[in-house]
Design brief:
8-stranded mixed β-sheet, homodimer, about 300 residues, alpha/beta, elongated, 11 helices
């Protein structure tokens, strides 16, 4: 490492820099929630020599994280153990983030950065500001989830090359933001700073809408008596997200209802247009719609 | 091979049996259309020593198929070359299948089997019967397509483990059906005999509906100013089919409009239900729908 410091090497931008300046002050990271995202982050950081304190409501996940040498210590209510953490990461379903943040707030003595990993950002950014954590808080959303969930699905490499949206509060300090960027860069992510409201508007369309479409497709296929094994390769792609966590996604839908509603409406309008063209026996209109969609997809 | 004949070996059901009894009488196969499906079938058969006669409206695809040693001879209008074929396979878009079959019919002197590979089956089965090809015709639909198209996307191995629906006419001979089964088994497919009407009803839901949903999603995202590179892993899965061939899919939608219309309607009903639950601030209802979809997906 000292040689690398003396003579900086050209490295590709994706390559995690373990010697990152801002990260050097981080010895201990607390991660609350050892699901796909929290568990994968814990594995990455522990693998880089960071002391990981971890908490999870599931004793089996905690035991596995300790047995695998990922979690150095277990965090338990009332979360006093958080006082030793330089960075605190909430990795719980968005519906639980407010309560967990409130429970954690009294113990964030040392923390230079408090962040989360949820799929909606307005609520948690607002909650952090209300709890007096505005300067140290940065909302994070790594675009690394899929239909898998839980510690068993967590793995090193999950964040490699993935976009990570960072949503500051109105009072986030430059140091906290820089530390959040360093943290995600260290595990392979590509961070992008975005206003929380813009994030929720975008993600309603690029993530939450696709999820609900897959769910609606699964429901319609179930209604029609079709089985998943009757899907071809393309249909399999479309139905995969239907296996996502109901707990996580009902929380996301509730948090982002005001953005999801017009996003679903826009989809409904395009689907109705396709149906009209098909029922109207207008193959040219159908073809034009297919062509425009294909052009967008590139 | 003679040893295997003398003492049949236990082989896994997926394993193509090159020594298949019914296929032994096939020396020459004509394939009209060298797209993803036709091109892949041509590669598989040529690789097994079958003489492949091929026709494609695109001279570049024809030239490539000959240069790569896949097509032994080029078939050109008026398709007189078909008289040498033991098996004839139409691998053209469904909108063109009827016309190509009519053009081919006068030249099918030797053919023991005439089949196709289209995504809808009622129309082509009816057309074959009307052309007096009922005994020798079996409609085929290998569930092996994706959003790629053309000779450039064709490859050996495409049919491995894939379902191939076989739809006989009312007068298909047992020998023709057995030969169709042998043909697809030889290239790794798992054939399943199904009535053409039942096929079109099923595929409207398991294949055509997912395609149109992906198209509608792409259109809605385009309307909202979102870019494909803003999609996460799950959203990418959902938007992938939007890149499918507009020509092919507008033809499929036209052919199967009567089945697609209620399939889209059923999806619309479930999507409206999800939207109502989200707008009604009813996370339990949203969760129940997510749970039911997940149970179906397994």
């Amino acid at each position: 490492v000292s040689a690398a410091e003396a003579e900086p090497q050209a490295s590709p931008p994706d390559h995690p820099s373990d010697g990152d300046l801002a990260l050097r002050s981080v010895g201990t990271v607390a991660i609350l929630g050892l699901g796909l995202i929290g568990g994968s982050l814990a594995r990455e950081l522990a693998g880089r020599g960071v002391a990981v304190l971890a908490g999870d409501r599931d004793p089996a996940a905690m035991a596995a994280a300790r047995a695998e040498g990922v979690a150095r210590e277990a965090l338990e209510a009332p979360l006093e153990g958080l006082c030793a953490a330089d960075v605190v990461v909430l990795a719980v379903p968005v519906a639980a983030a407010g309560a967990v943040l409130a429970a954690a707030a009294p113990h964030l003595r040392r923390a230079q950065l408090v962040t989360d990993v949820g799929s909606t950002k307005r609520g948690v950014v607002r909650a952090a500001a209300h709890l007096g954590l505005g300067e140290r808080f940065v909302g994070s959303h790594p675009l690394a989830g899929d239909h898998h969930a839980g510690w068993g699905a967590s793995r090193a490499g999950l964040f490699q090359g993935r976009t990570v949206y960072l949503c500051p509060t109105p009072s986030t300090s430059p140091a906290a933001l820089a530390l959040a960027e360093s943290l995600w860069r260290a595990v392979g992510g590509r961070s992008q700073v975005m206003d929380a409201a813009a994030h929720d508007r975008l993600l309603a369309r690029t993530s939450h809408l696709p999820q609900l479409l897959s769910t609606a497709l699964a429901l319609a296929l179930d209604d029609a008596g079709c089985r998943p094994d009757q899907l071809g390769p393309g249909g399999q792609d479309m139905a995969r997200l239907a296996a996502s966590s109901p707990e996580m996604w009902s929380g996301i839908a509730a948090e982002n209802a005001d953005e999801l509603s017009p996003a679903i409406a826009a989809l409904q309008a395009r689907l109705a247009e396709l149906r009209d063209a098909i029922e109207g026996d207008d193959p040219d209109a159908v073809r034009r719609l297919l062509e425009r969609a294909r052009e967008w997809r590139g």
